[in-house]
């Protein structure tokens, strides 16, 4: 059945179920994102262990992180188009299978070059997660619910980041660090079985009620031809999303890959003791992710335009990040945790709204490509921050300049987004 034609089941005035099939799909996306972040964060948790065993310098570790970011950037550019070609179901299957095997492959290496190769493969595969997830949200949710759905699935990033410092040390202390990569990497293979059994497009899902289908299609999917990358780059809407990702994604990478080291350097915490502070940070980020998506959705239900709702929510988040600049200056670990927790929550609230912009500004047929392009710019920013952070730490050993960057990035990004899309009008592609 063509997406441009109504489904007969949609001819009904019955209200959509509050907890319908679309939220089962959202739960699948949440679990995939959780696994995605577990797999990428293991290396950060193990930095003190692997650095001591293999004698890594800060530059060595920065190069390993850089390799992941570089391949993630390339992967986002490729995966967006691949997903638009393969479709969400097959494309997500390929991405999760590839990154799971790459994560497990870390257990077989023992040198800087080996870890660079494994991280490169992991970055290519993991790049498929958000383009596929946003495409699934576009297919399964009306516009007014997308920010909340994205906020929920994006909470998987925080759940994964929260679980990793709890699970990985236990595995390492019991079985050794190689098993940490094998066990966490294997989680994705179990997720694939559920994904293949459950996921179909709404029109192909027999379990979907007529009322829920009508609710989903209350924001129609536009028909039209494919748009090449260069065509997307001609639009200010693409650059607004890309600039936001370039300036703020790297801050999250800082937290993922350097927070264990920050707590180790500043407060002498180790593999056994930094788990609880990290859990608090990422649990707070979970609240922020869902809260940021809820806030803009709530504002829209109260009559605010998507432009006002998204930008008000993003401004609140940008202001809440600012106190993190004080984190490396305090002497109490829990004061530092509180400041970083607030910033992490605000980042994820910001991200939930930023990730929704492509579905606000572009037709569904190119959403994955726009998400991929923007994510590529975010990963390029991550590449740069890896080099900057490792160089600062190698030369000064201080996190003060790093957290200053982290605190100021969001307000600058929001200013540029507003200048590029002051009214958030949808791009005219055809």
TrEMBL record:
Q: What name goes with this protein?
A: MFS transporter
Short name of any one Pfam family annotated for the protein: MFS_1
> Which family does the entry's similarity section mention?
Belongs to the major facilitator superfamily. Phthalate permease family.
Q: Name one GO cellular component term.
A: membrane
- Which coarse location class applies to the principal site listed for this UniProt protein? membrane
Q: Please list every transmembrane segment annotated in the UniProt record, as residue ranges.
A: 59-80, 92-118, 148-173, 179-199, 239-259, 274-296, 308-327, 367-393, 399-421
Give the Major facilitator superfamily (MFS) profile domain ranges: 25-425
Places the protein is found: Membrane
* Keyword tags: Membrane, Transmembrane, Transmembrane helix
Q: Name one GO molecular function term.
A: hexuronate transmembrane transporter activity
Taxonomic path: Bacteria, Pseudomonadati, Pseudomonadota, Gammaproteobacteria, Lysobacterales
Instruction: Please give, as recorded in its UniProt entry, the membrane topology of this protein.
Output: Multi-pass membrane protein
